Task: inverse folding
């Protein structure tokens, strides 16, 4: 694998750390600013919405410059946002710092996916994308627990300062290792938007929203589920999340390896498996050992869908993949927000802390149905294209 992929992975590690570490530091941040926990929760919501808006916005702006230069600018924005978060004297400024940081998130992964895929041969593209996303998964195993520990021991501002420093390392890595890639000919907004006329691009994004949404329906409420249902202590939740991160790491590698060989069968297996495991989680959540195993499986099956879904979008939006790739990263965050909201509704309705698992299972099953629909549509299109050359000579014979 080219060294440039590791530079992208370092950037992904920083982004993954800053996105998820906030959840472990909310009480400290709320206490420092004198706001309630729900108000501090706006730092999570604001970030997710920033990714959703920033992914297409920053990518559109990026059509004016080369992809390498845009990746460097995005890492620069990431550093500025985290420094602002670390130094913010008031809560509104802290929220502003989070939103500035989030604007870099979607476009970095979107453009980074295109660059990663362009660095390798056609049969290794999903593997290259997975290598970049390894940074995000490792962030959940190492960066988030370490950042939470540092934040609780020394102060949360130190955590964001360290993440900003990590962004500087990522920026220099991209500058040094990513080859100069000229702006693609005809990289115009109209051409990039044209990719969304392809039904397969829309279907792939729908799979992203529903499939990954299935994961976060369960994981968003993992703390109350594990402490109230499984009987774990509050302190054990951190290690359960590390276990989830290990699952993400393994699933990402698996998805990258097999998506290049058999993309759609990989999606059938992972989405179907995810639906079954999430449904079983309503039962396994009552046993400590089974709950831990299930969390690992949810992480693995959920993240095994990421490289194939991202590659599916790149394949279907060929010729103008940059905006579609970035919007698909926004779709992951839309799935997170949608499933967290639906999970909250079923808990509020008194259905218990395991109820979000049913929500997740239904979302994953819906994504599986869309995967079958997408494959059927593709077969129909190929059959029509195969028939077209046969029809053409007949018509020419009639004319003569």
Result:
């Amino acid at each position: 694998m080219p060294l440039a992929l590791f530079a992208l992975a370092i950037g992904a590690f920083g982004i993954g750390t800053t996105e998820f570490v906030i959840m472990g530091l909310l009480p400290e941040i709320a206490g420092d600013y004198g706001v309630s926990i729900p108000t501090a929760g706006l730092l999570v919501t604001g970030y997710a919405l920033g990714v959703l808006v920033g992914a297409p916005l920053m990518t559109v702006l990026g059509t004016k410059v080369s992809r390498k230069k845009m990746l460097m600018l995005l890492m620069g924005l990431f550093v500025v946002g985290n420094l602002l978060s670390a130094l913010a004297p008031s809560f509104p400024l802290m929220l502003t710092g989070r939103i500035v940081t989030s604007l870099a998130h979607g476009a970095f992964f979107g453009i980074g996916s295109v660059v990663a895929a362009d660095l390798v041969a056609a049969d290794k593209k999903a593997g290259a994308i997975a290598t970049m996303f390894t940074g995000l998964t490792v962030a959940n195993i190492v960066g988030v627990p370490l950042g939470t520990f540092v934040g609780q021991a020394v102060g949360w501002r130190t955590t964001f300062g360290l993440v900003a420093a990590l962004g500087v390392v990522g920026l220099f890595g991209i500058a040094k290792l990513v080859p100069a890639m000229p702006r693609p000919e005809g990289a115009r907004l109209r051409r990039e938007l044209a990719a969304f006329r392809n039904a397969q691009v829309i279907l792939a994004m729908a799979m992203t929203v529903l499939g990954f949404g299935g994961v976060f329906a369960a994981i968003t409420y993992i703390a109350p589920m594990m402490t109230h249902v499984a009987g774990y202590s509050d302190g054990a939740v951190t290690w359960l999340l590390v276990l989830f991160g290990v699952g993400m790491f393994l699933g990402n590698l698996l998805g990258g390896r097999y998506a290049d060989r058999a993309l759609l069968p990989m999606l059938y297996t992972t989405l179907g498996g995810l639906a079954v495991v999430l449904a079983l989680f309503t039962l396994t959540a009552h046993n400590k050992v089974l709950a831990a195993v299930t969390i690992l499986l949810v992480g693995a099956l959920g993240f095994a869908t990421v490289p194939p879904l991202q590659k599916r979008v790149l394949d279907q939006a060929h010729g103008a993949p940059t905006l579609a790739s970035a919007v698909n990263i926004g779709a992951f965050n839309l799935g997170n927000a949608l499933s967290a909201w639906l999970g909250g509704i079923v808990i509020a309705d008194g259905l218990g802390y395991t109820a979000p698992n049913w929500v997740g299972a239904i979302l994953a099953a819906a994504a599986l149905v869309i995967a079958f629909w997408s494959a059927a549509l593709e077969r129909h299109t190929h059959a029509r294209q195969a028939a077209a050359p046969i029809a053409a000579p007949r018509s020419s014979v009639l004319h003569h």
Summary: The CA atoms of residues 106 and 383 lie 36 Å apart. The chain has two domains: 1-183, 187-385. The radius of gyration is 22 Å.
